[in-house]
Amino acid sequence: MGKLIKNHWARLIVLTAALYQIAAALSAFFWPKIFWDFLTTNLNPAVRPIPILQILNLLLGILAFAWEWPLPIFAFAETAMHRSIEARLAVYPLSALAALLLYQGTNPGIYYLLGMGVYFWGFSEGEVVCPDPWSLPRRRTQRVGRV
């Protein structure tokens, strides 16, 4: 049996969350609703008349998608930002919060939380994100006779 590479699993979870967040932001342009409006209506100006929260969710979803699936046109692959799990653990809570505020974005918010948990699990075990997307980390070669 192979070893589970947690950052690849987390990447798939966050890719799902990002696509779902983009779809939720687009549908929220037509049906704006705050998830927490049953408790308070103070957050309603964030979605109506100016769609601030929808635009924020759309931008964060596109950023997460470009970060997790680094296509050559984005020029994001093989950068230090792409290889940094710490940066992901700093940005994805903001994406999760923005998604959880929007009624249509509760599922992507939960997916982001799950992806952050898996990223943290991999980070705590010393995993690294490879410069090549979807590749395996190189094994260190052992030199005989050297200390």
Give structural notes.
The chain is an all-alpha fold. 56% of the residues lie in helices and 0% in strands. The chain has five helices and no strands. α1 runs antiparallel to α2 (52-68), α2 runs antiparallel to α4 and α4 (85-101) runs antiparallel to α5 (106-124). The two termini are 31 Å apart. 29% of the residues are buried.
Give the topology.
Layout: H1 6-30, H2 52-68, H3 80-83, H4 85-101, H5 106-124
Helix pairs in contact: 1-2, 1-5, 2-4, 4-5
In N-to-C order, the SSE pattern is: HHHHH
Task: Specify the overall morphology.
Answer: elongated
Query: Biggest sheet, open or closed, and with what strands and sense?
Result: none
Low-confidence stretches: none
Radius of gyration: 18 Å
Strand content: under 5%
Helix content: 55-70%
User: How far is it from the N-terminal to the C-terminal residue, by CA?
Assistant: 31 Å
- Structural category is mainly alpha
Q: DSSP helix count?
A: 5
The count of β-strands is 0
